[in-house]
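Class, look over these structure tokens:
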Amino acid sequence: MVCPRCIEAVEGILEESGLPANYVNLGVVELDGKLPSGKLEELREKLGRRGFELIFDRETEISNLVQSALIKYLDHIENSDSPQRLSDFVSAHTLYNYSYLSKIFSDNKGKTIENYLIELKIERVKELLSFNKWTLSEIAWMLKYSSVQYLSNQFKKVTGVTVTQYTQKKNIPRKSFDRL
């Protein structure tokens, strides 16, 4: 789960399945009581139809916690004049040591935390460009890039096209955060 709509969707699936939850947040569900026998496969199927999956192994769970923290971090850097360092923010939101998280995340996702954040930022750049409301300089400033040139180079490296090519084509698909 990577957004409030995801939380609502999972809450709806749980309610529809007759499974009251104590807590539903990004990537985490705590049921009120034990999962009745036979309900696990039904729940897995219902979640799968909506693009969710049940996770039981610790490494995947931790990787998903990191992903959720990174999505929050993206919002944090955009809305803060002096954002926290990435490592401090992620550690504070997951309650794990950053080097431990970094190893687990890399092993599980096949990319570093920093590379995942870059992909998140580039998807956010695409979204902001689609509004035609801000210049690339303003977007670079909003997302705390050191320069427009650095953002442009990173955009080209991640997408394979320049910002100008992207804005002219308009049909280059964006990725949802949970598909990065």
Q: What stands out?
A: The first strand starts at residue 21 and ends at 25.
